[in-house]
Design goal:
Helix content: over 70%
Keywords: Membrane, Transmembrane, Transmembrane helix
Number of strands: 0
Protein name: DUF1097 domain-containing protein
Largest sheet: none
Number of domains: 1
Organism: Mucinivorans hirudinis
Strand content: under 5%
Structural class: mainly alpha
Shape: flat
Length: 169
């Protein structure tokens, strides 16, 4: 069952690659890896729809935090902070309030996964120089939704399978 779902993810990823880049989506390189991250995050989130929604919100906040870090780091560099120190200082300042979001029940691990994926899209991929915050976020969230759905399908099918097996005993 999981192998079939993984194959579906690969098919969807290949189809999306053929869509061409747009203002809200990148399709010049495979991003299926994002789906598998979000799929795993669904399990960390407790295997519930509520947990999946919380994970999605955390992904969005991770993207927003990443953008703020990049913008603030760029601004610091533009006002004379040496480039080597601009982003580390930006992280030092902005990660503190992010961590405090745990007090309002934000899923911090998913936030960090979302932020890390966003940084990867923005910096470590072909044609990264043509990537905007908007289309990187759209791409990440599209694959995130696919991964969370795959997590839900996995749990739902597994529950149905176990119910059938237990009924047969």
């Amino acid at each position: 069952m999981i192998a079939a779902l993984a194959a579906i993810v690969q098919i969807v990823d290949q189809l999306l690659q053929g869509c061409g880049s747009s203002a809200i989506f990148l399709a010049d390189s495979g991003f299926g890896w994002l789906t598998f991250q979000a799929w795993a995050v669904y399990f960390f989130a407790g295997c519930t729809v509520k947990g999946g929604v919380q994970a999605f919100v955390a992904y969005v906040l991770g993207i927003v935090g990443s953008i703020l870090i990049m913008v603030f780091g760029g601004w610091l560099a533009s006002v004379g902070v040496p480039g080597f120190w601009a982003v580390p200082f930006s992280l030092l300042v902005l990660v503190i309030p992010v961590i405090c979001l745990e007090r309002v029940k934000v899923m911090i691990p998913a936030l960090f996964v979302g932020a890390g994926a966003f940084f990867a899209i923005m910096t470590f991929r072909p044609a990264a120089e043509n990537t905007t915050f908007w289309n990187a976020a759209g791409t990440e969230l599209t694959y995130c939704i696919l991964g969370l759905i795959m997590g839900w399908i996995t749990v739902t099918l597994r529950g149905a399978y176990e119910k059938c097996v237990n009924k047969a005993k």
